[in-house]
Amino acid sequence: MQELRRKGIYIIPNLFTTGNLFCGVFAIMSVFHTQYLTAATAILVGSIFDVLDGKLARLTNTTSRFGVEYDSLSDLVSFGIAPGLLAYAWALQPYGRLGWMGLFLYIVCGALRLARFNVQVSSVESTDFIGLPTPAAAILVATMVMFDGNVFALGDAVRPALTLALIYLLAFLMVSNIRYRSFKGLDLRDRKPFNVLVGFILAFMVLVTIPWIMLFTLSALYVFLGILEKPFVALYRKLDEQPGGRAEEASEDDLEDIEDKNILEKN
User: Fold this and answer.
1) How are the residues of the chain apportioned to helix, strand and coil, as percentages rounded to the nearest 5?
2) Overall pTM > 0.85
């Protein structure tokens, strides 16, 4: 405590972390008042604060152990307790004990995920995430509520079953060893091909035109691509190594190039 008082704390990144925490508390209050769309929006805004506090801390070289711990505590409220309560109040209550056990499992797995992240932040998780990040899980829950409220009503028969399956799946993914891309190596300051700019513009236009569908689709893709990426890559490599695969075709092409070169040298 004396060392903390002597060194002080960095104000700017911790203010954004506090904004994230405020969004989480506001989302919980909205759930109590059955304002589910408001709660989902608060979770999304909290995820923006969560991204900005880390970015600002790295850009201004103001990272600290205090900031890491404070960020994790805020994330537990905004991306653990808030989306868990939202899912339970919105769809899981009809399942009784199975519903509130799903709520507890989601929160405890989120807490375990954040604790593991703090331990591995300077080693394993410096490149990719091990397990589904808690903000990604919370965003999927929030965007599903928004999709149901603004685009297509899932119905009282489908909504509880789908939410129950999803909440248990997300809890498992958060504590799994599945690797998820962190995109920390993505540097937009470097020169990129012109098509990259066009792609960003098109994605922005689609996001503005149909935001609820786009947000739900992107969050679902991120969650499920983490599960499917490794099996697809393994299958691709296996097919590539089979007779007649691309590796063999490439070697045959190389052989033809060498033969053509030898003929030209003889001539």
Assistant:
1) 80, 0, 20
2) no
